[in-house]
Design a protein that fits this description.
Helix content is about 50%, strand content about 5%. The protein is built from 11 helices and 7 strands. It has a 3-stranded mixed β-sheet. The chain has a two-stranded antiparallel sheet with strand order 1-2. β3 and β4 form a beta hairpin. α2 crosses α8, α4 crosses α7 and α8 crosses α11. The longest helix has 22 residues. Bound molecules: heme C (2 copies). The site of one heme C has 18 residues, from α5, α6 and α7.
Length: about 280
């Protein structure tokens, strides 16, 4: 960061953050752990070749048969127009009948939000709107209605290239997400990055390890393995469990930071929800 932009951020932050919060984000930036980044073991062309060899046919077949989560998307649209809570409002009352005011918005999430001095996700924002603007109870994460609304809001950005920012106050949270991704932990002493950066494109039992560049553009997704739709963070928890790491609560700070880190890797790729995975 140049001296000029640092001074600018300082001025901007001093206005909106409490002294304690500012100290935290500044300290986080200073104390950003040094990470030795991996380079993928194979070229991106070789990766594409292997990916198509393993998944090419099944993806085609899935596309023909349709995505079961399309029904959930329709239900999400209905929920968006349904009044709930003490204010008697629906999402549509403020964001347009067909969510037109939210078109393209999900492509900028997750993002830093001074009101929570942290990273805001689409799922978190929906619950904040329910509580602060509708007088309604927050939706429990991963329930049908919660996922359906999140899916619908994200679908309003289908085809829009992801463009999340990690500048200014977002930076320390991005670094925290990256540090988590690279940290070896759990009973098997794995890090996320070993499998999804270094060995992406290699087989692990029957699976081709995917590259993290392509992780953030298609969630919530329907997964055959779950027989249901689920969120990006549910997938984090699945990998945490598989490699015997601690499984964290939905929308906790670590998973939101991780979501920012991974979504930034996918910058430029168009959003495509609902995804369909094995
Ligand atoms: C009474 C008006 C109101 C209602 C009803 C409402 N919101 Fe919001 N929404 C806002 C305001 C104001 C913001 C700006 C941030 C804030 O104050 O929380 C916002 C922000 C958002 C954003 C982020 C927009 C951006 O540009 O970053 C999303 C997504 C969103 N709302 C979704 C929803 C959904 C889904 C519902 C229904 C569950 C809903 N909102 C209900 C007023 C409303
Ligand atoms: C031992 C290897 C291994 C480790 C470590 C691991 N994963 Fe995975 N992960 C897999 C396999 C295998 C799959 C399924 C095949 C694929 O898509 O890569 C997968 C799939 C995923 C997917 C879905 C990919 C998609 O296309 O949507 C995400 C997201 C993911 N992992 C995130 C993580 C995160 C976050 C961590 C660290 C907490 C992690 N993984 C650690 C092996 C691993």
């Amino acid at each position: 960061m140049s001296r000029f932009s640092r001074a600018f951020v300082l001025l901007a932050c001093a206005g909106v953050l409490t002294a304690g919060a500012w100290k935290y984000s500044f300290a986080g930036e200073e104390a950003a752990p040094r990470i030795k980044e991996y380079t993928p073991n194979i070229s991106s062309q070789e990766y594409e070749k292997r990916y198509n060899a393993v998944y090419g046919k099944s993806t085609e077949k899935m596309a023909e048969e349709g995505n079961p989560a399309d029904f959930m998307l329709d239900d999400g649209k209905d929920l968006f127009g349904k009044a709930e809570g003490s204010a008697g409002k629906s999402c549509a009352s403020c964001h347009g009948a067909n969510g037109e005011k939210l078109k393209g918005v999900a492509a900028t999430f997750p993002k830093y939000d001074p009101a929570i001095n942290g990273i805001n996700t689409v799922a978190l924002q929906i619950n904040r709107c329910r509580q602060e603007h509708m007088g309604a109870a927050p939706l429990k994460y991963e329930t049908y209605d919660q996922l359906a609304l999140e899916l619908y809001v994200k679908s309003l950005s289908n085809g829009v290239p992801i463009k999340v920012s990690i500048d200014g106050p977002a930076k320390p949270f991005y670094e925290a997400g990256k540090a988590y991704y690279y940290k070896r932990h759990g009973q098997f002493n794995f890090s996320c990055a070993i499998c999804h950066v270094k060995y992406a494109g290699h087989m692990m039992r029957a699976n081709l390890l995917s590259s993290n560049r392509h992780h953030a553009d298609h969630w919530p997704a329907y997964r055959l393995d779950w027989g249901a739709a689920g969120s990006f963070q549910k997938r984090f928890r699945g990998c945490n469990k598989n490699v015997r790491q601690e499984v964290l609560p939905f929308q906790c700070e670590t998973y939101r930071d991780l979501e920012l880190y991974l979504t930034y890797q996918a910058n430029g790729l168009p959003i495509q929800v609902p995804g369909f995975k094995m």
